[in-house]
Amino acid sequence: MKNKDVEKLYELVPIDTPVHLDGPVMGNGDGEYKQLSRDSKGVLVYIIQTRLKVVGYYEGECNGIFDKKTEEAIKSFQKDEKIPVTGSINMRDYIHLGLLE
């Protein structure tokens, strides 16, 4: 499904409806780990938010929408990791977050 399809279904499906994922969560193997920045949406943003929340940087809702709170959490994480503070996510950040080796 594409994000636009999910957004349409959101209005139709009640909260707490069980969902079953079939196939790789991260996509089909073709460049899933893309650069993310403000206004990005999707499962990768959700995963980043969740990881940042677990390590104490993010206090917002994990909703897959790259908003100001997400950007601020990323900047704090980058500063503490002593990597360039950009507020966006690239391959280096995936590695520092432990999502890639």
Percentage of residues in strands: under 5%
Main pleated sheet: none
Mean pLDDT across all residues, rounded? 85
**Level-2 CATH architecture of the domain at 35-101:** Orthogonal Bundle
The amount of helix comes to 25-40%
CATH topology of the domain at 35-101: Muramoyl-pentapeptide Carboxypeptidase, domain 1
CATH class category name of the domain at 35-101: Mainly Alpha
| Coarse structural class | mainly alpha
The CATH superfamily of the domain at 35-101 turns out to be PGBD-like superfamily/PGBD
Please compute the radius of gyration using only Cα atoms: 14 Å
Quote the distance from N terminus to C terminus.
27 Å
Number of beta strands = 0
**Uncertain segments:** none
Written as H for each helix and E for each strand, in order along the chain, the element string is HHHH
Tertiary shape: elongated
Number of helices: 4
Give a verbal description of the structure:
It contains four helices and no strands. The chain has helices at 3-10, 43-54, 68-81, 91-96. The longest helix has 14 residues, at 68-81. The protein is elongated and about 45 Å long. The mean pLDDT is 85. GO terms for molecular function: transferase activity. InterPro entries: LD_TPept_cat_dom (IPR005490), Peptidoglycan-bd-like (IPR002477), PGBD-like_sf (IPR036365), PGBDSf (IPR036366). This is Putative peptidoglycan binding protein.
